Amino acid sequence: MSTLESIIWHTLGYAAMPVIILTGFVGVAAISIWLLSLGKDKEV
Fold first, then answer.
1. Which side of the chain, N or C, has fewer Cβ within a 10 Å radius?
2. Any stretches that span the bilayer, and where are they (predicted)?
C-alpha cells in the first residue's frame, strides 16, 4: 500500500468513530424528543 493510500485509510478510520457516535447521539435525541412529544398536551 502506498503512503497516500495509508494516509487516506487512517484518516477515514479516525473520522468514522466520531461520526458514528454523533449520528447515534442525534438519532437517540430525535427519537426521545418524538416520544416525549407524544405525551404532551396538544391544547393551547
1. C
2. 12-36
Rg (CA), the chain: 19
CA distance 2 to 22: 31
- Tell me: the pLDDT tens digits for 1-44? 899 999 999 999 999 999 999 999 999 999 999 999 888 766 66
Determine the Cα–Cα distance for residues 26 and 44; give it in Å rounded to an integer: 28
The three three-digit cell numbers of residue 20, written as one number:
458514528
Residue partners of 1: CB distance under 8 A and separation at least 6: 9
